[in-house]
Design a protein that fits this description.
Elements (H helix, E strand, L loop, with lengths): L14 H11 L2 E6 L5 E4 L14 H22 L6 H14 L1 H4 L11 H6 L3 H7 L5 E3 L6 E3 L1 H14 L5
Amino acid sequence: MDKNRTTVAALVVSAASLVGIAGYESYRGNAYLDSGNVATIGYGATAGVKLGDTTTPARALIRLHGDVSEHARAIQRCIKAPLFQYEFDAYLSLAYNIGAGAFCNPAKPAAPPTLIDLINAQRYSEACARIREFNKYRNPKTGQLEPLRGLTNRRELEYRTCIGDAP
């Protein structure tokens, strides 16, 4: 194990990752349909949200912390390689946005490696670069995956965090 990396079980939801996710998601007090047509509220919360729901900034932050912590536990179960805290922060932000299931999804036999496969193979630079590929959403009008400028910008910042070059 790289002496500067640590086991993922020892990594935590850092203040930097929580603030970063809150900044990416932005606060909305009233439930709305996001670009993928999913009911969303607060700082990107979707579970159990329905249009007409409301929240306050304080309740949204509490929920964000709980939701991010839940995502952290989920990705800690599938990441087997040691990481730097900043790598974990980048992956946690991605997992919060795409879901832990999508993040932890390994490749099918004979298929190219997925992000989690690259991480667990300790192919760190390739794994960080793979973050950039998660910049698409399913357009509810066409059913097709399309790049979204906001996701492209977020993925670039997550990539920079992952390589230790965060602004």
